[in-house]
Every structure is written in structure tokens, then in C-alpha cells.
What we know:
mainly beta; 4-stranded antiparallel beta sheet; elongated
Amino acid sequence: MAVPEGPFATVSVGWEHACGLRRDDTVACWLTRAMPTPAEVRRD
Length: 44
């Protein structure tokens, strides 16, 4: 499965998804059991 580019400061993994906080304060989440396409979210 494809994981979005990092580097990540922290990563949290759940049963079906994972989210990583990048060092530039953006967040990327991706599914770990189904579609591997990341969803990009900007943290303000």
C-alpha cells in the first residue's frame, strides 16, 4: 500500500487507517486495509 511522502513527526495507526503529522504541520491520512490513496489535509 502506498504511504504518502514524509518526513513525519508523529504517526497514529488505527484498524483501517493511519494519519501522520508532517514536520511542516500538514496531515496525511491513508487507509491501511482498503484503498491506499492518501487524503491530504492542511492544519491551520
